[in-house]
Specification:
Length: 357
């Protein structure tokens, strides 16, 4: 996790207690200004997402029908395709950014991403079952099965990680997640290799995309994203205490077991809904929390606030870039985020020391 050497990992304590009050106030004001800049960038990139696409529409026409739908072909494109796609990118970005920050804080692992607990593979398994055994072939049909698979995988991982008389520790959760991921990957591979039709349909979902999703998919995942977001933000102070170790966290009054259970539930809700709606999209949940910590330090309250703004900026921006570069077609967003996220992560690794406790 990208922090200064003296800082704790996964969301350490906030500003040092000895820092003068005027300095703390200035730092808080600067971080707040940064949030406003991130919000402005998100609004700008969202407008670009509504404006730019495979069909060239003048900005004046886009702006006009955005506020006054008139039933024209341009209005249908804007309101039936581009706006749902942008709103979905906003929700998926928030979900991936927050779940990534939460995973890295819970496991105190700088390389943790939202799929570490088997959530992504669980969602993929749900889609494989829906396609291969039930013949479901629409994005709205996939969502429920993908979310059910993500939820089931998260429950199994937590039960395995908490087996015995001890609480679920970060190490046990990571090992359980790796085991469940391996089993689900083997199951998916076996089913898809034996069913070419299912494989041909599944490969379009697994690349990760926002295209082709309508508002009905947005309405399905929105309650889960909002619930997961609320739980994650409420956990931020407890995660700051846990970053100093379980014993000290307990001494500070943190209920360790409850915090980890709620953290797993939040990751399941956020990552499960995002993966169900858009497919597995890599690097967003891994890279964005590191960028946030690079800007504001290890305080999880600020890391989560920045992550929930910077992640949709990266995701929607990648989606817009894929449309521009692939015109008259488009490059799927999951491919673009990999090309952007991997070099960015390498730069962060070189500039800041990644440590793991």
């Amino acid at each position: 996790m990208s922090v200064e050497t003296r800082a704790t990992v996964g969301g350490g304590a906030a500003e040092p207690a000895a820092a003068p009050a005027p300095r703390r106030t200035a730092v808080t004001a600067l971080r707040g200004a940064g949030l406003l800049v991130a919000l402005a960038a998100l609004i700008l990139i969202s407008l670009l997402s509504v404006w730019l696409g495979t069909r060239d529409i003048p900005f004046t026409s886009t702006w006009s029908v955005l506020w006054n739908p008139d039933g024209s072909q341009t209005s249908v494109i804007i309101h039936s395709y581009r706006i749902p796609r942008t709103v979905l990118g906003l929700l998926v970005g928030i979900a991936l950014g927050l779940s990534g920050a939460l995973m890295q804080a819970l496991t105190r692992n700088p390389l943790a991403d939202p799929g570490l607990l088997g959530v992504s593979l669980g969602a993929s398994t749900g889609v494989v079952v829906a396609i291969a055994f039930l013949g479901i072939g629409t994005a709205l049909g996939y969502v429920w099965f993908a979310f059910a698979g993500a939820a089931l995988a998260s429950v199994v991982v937590y039960l395995l990680g908490s087996a015995g008389r001890t609480l679920a520790t970060p190490d046990r959760l990571v090992v359980a997640g790796a085991a469940v991921t391996a089993v689900l990957y083997a199951f998916n591979s076996a089913v898809l290799l034996l069913d070419p039709r299912a494989f041909n349909q599944f490969r379009f979902w697994t690349v990760g995309a926002l295209a082709g999703r309508r508002m009905d998919v947005v309405w399905v995942i929105a309650p889960f994203v909002v619930t997961g977001l609320a739980v994650a933000l409420l956990l931020a102070p407890s995660l700051n205490a846990l970053a100093m170790g379980d014993q000290l966290g307990k001494a500070l009054g943190v209920n360790i077991g409850r915090t980890r259970v709620l953290g797993v539930v939040s990751v399941m809700l956020l990552c499960g809904s995002a993966t169900a709606a858009a497919g597995p999209i890599g690097f967003v949940g891994l890279v964005v929390p590191h960028v946030a910590r690079f800007v504001v330090g290890p305080d999880q309250r600020w890391v989560m606030a920045y992550s929930m703004l910077l992640a949709p900026v990266l995701l929607i921006g990648s989606d817009v870039l894929g449309r521009v570069l692939g015109a008259p077609g488009e490059v799927q967003v999951g491919i673009v985020t990999a090309f952007i996220g991997a070099p960015l992560f390498l730069v962060l690794c070189r500039r800041r020391k990644l440590v793991m406790l």
